[in-house]
Amino acid sequence: MNNFEVATFILGKLVFYGCTSLDIQKIGTNFNLISTDSQPFIRTGITTLTINTGVQYLFCNSPSLTTVVFSETSGLTFVPSHMFENCTSLQSVTFNSGMTTIKRFAFANTALTKLDLKNVFILEPLSFYKSGVQEITFNKNVEVKNIWDTEYKDESDVKGEYDDVYTIEQMNKGILSYLTQFMDVEFESDFRLIEKYSTHRFCVFLNESRLTKITLGSSVTEFKSSMFANCSLTTFDVTGNSNFVFESGILYSKSKIELICIATLAATEYTVPSSISIISPFAFTFVPTITKITVPSSVAKFNYAFANMNRLRNITFQGSVSFIPDGAFFCCHSLKNIEIPSSSTVTSAGDLSFAFCYSLVNLMTNSFEKIGRGCFICCQKLSSVDCSKLTILNEFTFYHCIGNTTFTFGDNIKIISKNAFFMSSIESFTVPANVISIEQQAFSMCKELTTVTLNSKLVRIGKEAFAGSGVKNIQIPNSVRFIEQSAFDNCKNVTFSFETGGHPLFDVDNNCFIHKATKNLLFTFGDTYHKFTVSEKVKEVLPNSLRFTTVQRERNEGGFTLFSGVNTLVIPEVVYDVQDNLTNNPLIDSVCLDGISTFNLFFPIRNDMTVFITDDFVYGTYYNTIHVIHDMCKDTVDSRYDPRRYDRLDGIYEGNCSTSINDTYTSEFSDPIYGGNFPFINQKQAKAVFEYAGVSPLTAFISIYVILITLALIFSALYIARIN
C-alpha cells in the first residue's frame, strides 16, 4: 500500500495509526484531510519520506522513519510542532530553501546525525530536544523565538484525545514571564514551583551528548550560545567566515575582543584573557566542569556571561565592579562566593542577575540603589541584602527566597512591586515609611509571615497581596484608600484593627470587611466554614465579596466525599441587595434570606442550591425562583465532615496537589468502607491538609475481616445443622 501519487484521497482521523507495514514514500497534493486535526500518519511504518505538499501532517511516533526530504515544490515555510517527535530512527532531514522556521518539539527524540539548517533562521525552544544531532550547520543568524510565543498550544497541535499518541508537554501560561531577555509577559494565577522552569526553557538543543561540531556559514555574523544547554561540543568550523576566529577551543569575534563561546576546556579553573572586553551570553555553556573563574579588569560587558554554569563555585573580579548586569549569574546553582576589590561597592544589579543561585551566601559589599526584576529569585542561602537606598522594590525580586536572609530597607522606597516576596520565608515585615502601594501578590504564599506593620502613608493594597500568607492581626492605617477583594484570600488567621477612633472608610464585623459610607461588603476574611452569617452592618453584598475557601473531593473519582468551607449562608434582613452569584463558592448548599424585603435583589441561583425565604420576601426583577422554599432556615452542615485544617510544617506539597482553590490532592489510597475519608488530603493554594475523619484503612480491614469470619462461622453452623 504505497502507491498514493495517482489517486486522490480524503483521509480521516488517525486512519493509518499503528499501520507498521505502511511504507508511503511521497506525500503529495493528492492527499486531503477531513479536518486539520485528522492527522492520518501518526505511528506508522514509513521508512523514507519526500514531502511535496504544504499540508501540515504529523509523522510523530513512527519508529521506522529514517530519512525525510522537504521538496522545493512543497512550499512549506515551517516545520510544525511535534511533526517528527519520537521518530527514534530518523537520521537525515533535508530542508527546502523556503523553510525558515522550526517549531517546538518538531524533531524531539530523534537520531539525527548531520543537520544543515539551510535558510532556517527562527528556532523555537526545544525544537531539537534530544535529537541526537552530531553536526550542525548554521547558514543564517538564528533567532530563538521567545518562550511566551510557544507557551500555548498552537493550531498544529493534536488535541488532547491524542495525548497517548505522542508527547505534548504540559504548558503553564506565562510562568517564565520574568525572564527579561527571553520572556516578558504577565504572570498568571496558576503558579507552580518556579525551580522547575528555571533553566533550559529557552534552549533549542538540550541534552545533546553526541554533538561534536558546529559549522558557521559565510553569512553568519552572530552566534547565540543560549540555544544550547547540557550539550557536548568539540569544535567550531568557521572556514570561509571572516566574522569569527576559532583558536584553542575558543570562539572569538573577528577582533578577538569578544569571547563568544568556549567549545572545549579540560581544566576546572579558567582565567579570561586580558585582551577580552566582552563576554557573550552563555559563553561557558559547553564547559560545565569549570568551578572557578577569574575575570580581568578589561571586561566591561558580561550580560548572561556565566549563565547556566551549574558547577561554578567561585568567581573573582580583578577590576572595580559597581554594576552586575542582567542574568550575569543566572542559574549558577553552586555559586558560593563572588569576590570584588575591597574598594568596590555594588550599587546596581540587573534583571535576573543572581536568579537561581541556590548556594550563594555572601553577596560581596553591596548598597543597592537599583535592583532589577527577579534579581534574587530562589536565592535560598543569602545572608543579607542592603536595600536601604532603593526607591522601588522590583517585580519578583525575592521570589521564593526561603533562607534566613536579612533585608535592610530605607525610607526611600515608594512601591513594593508584584511578587516581590512571593513564597519567601520572611517572618515579619515593617513597611517602610514612604511606601504608598503594595502590589499584586507581593507577599502571597509567605506562610511564615505572621507580623506585618503598615505605614501611615500606604494608599493601596493590591490583588492577592498577602493571599495564602500567615499574617495575623493587621492594623489598617487611615491613609489606606483601596484594598483589593482578594488581598487577604486564604489567610485563615488574619484579623483587622484600626487606629483610635476607627478608619474613615472601613469597618470590620463578623469576618466581614465593610465600606462604611455605603455599607457594602467588600470581602469576607479568615477561616470560615459550616454556617456563616453576613454582618448586620452590611446593606449590600458586592460581586465576588464572599471569599470563602472551600475544598471538595468527589466519590465519583473512586474515593469519598469531603467538603470543607461554608455550607450555609445566612443573609440578614438588613441587607437589601445581593450581587454575588456564589459561582466561586460551590459548596454552599443553602442560602437563608432572613425576612428580606427588597426592591433590587440580583441573586442568580445555582441548580444545586436551595434558598430559604420568609413570607416577607419580595422578589427582585432578575431573581431566579428555582429551589426557593418558604420555610425556616435549615443548616445543611454534615457533622461527618471535619473542618480542621493543618499546615505542612515543611511547606512542601506533592506535585499533583492542585493549585486550584476547589480541587484537592489525589490520594493513592481507596476507602473500603463507605463514609470514611482518605487519611491524607491537602490543598495547595490554602496550604491545608485535611486529616483522616472517617474509618482508617486498618480499622476497615479488621472490620471486614471480622465480618467475613463471622459470616463463615454462621454458614458453617447452618450447614452442620442442615446435615444433622
UniProtKB/TrEMBL annotation:
<dbReference type="InterPro" id="IPR053139">
    <property type="entry name" value="Surface_bspA-like"/>
</dbReference>
<dbReference type="InterPro" id="IPR026906">
    <property type="entry name" value="LRR_5"/>
</dbReference>
<keyword id="KW-1133">Transmembrane helix</keyword>
<dbReference type="InterPro" id="IPR032675">
    <property type="entry name" value="LRR_dom_sf"/>
</dbReference>
<keyword id="KW-0472">Membrane</keyword>
<protein>
    <submittedName>
        <fullName>Surface antigen BspA-like</fullName>
    </submittedName>
</protein>
<keyword id="KW-0812">Transmembrane</keyword>
<feature type="transmembrane region" description="Helical">
    <location>
        <begin position="698"/>
        <end position="721"/>
    </location>
</feature>
<dbReference type="Pfam" id="PF13306">
    <property type="entry name" value="LRR_5"/>
</dbReference>
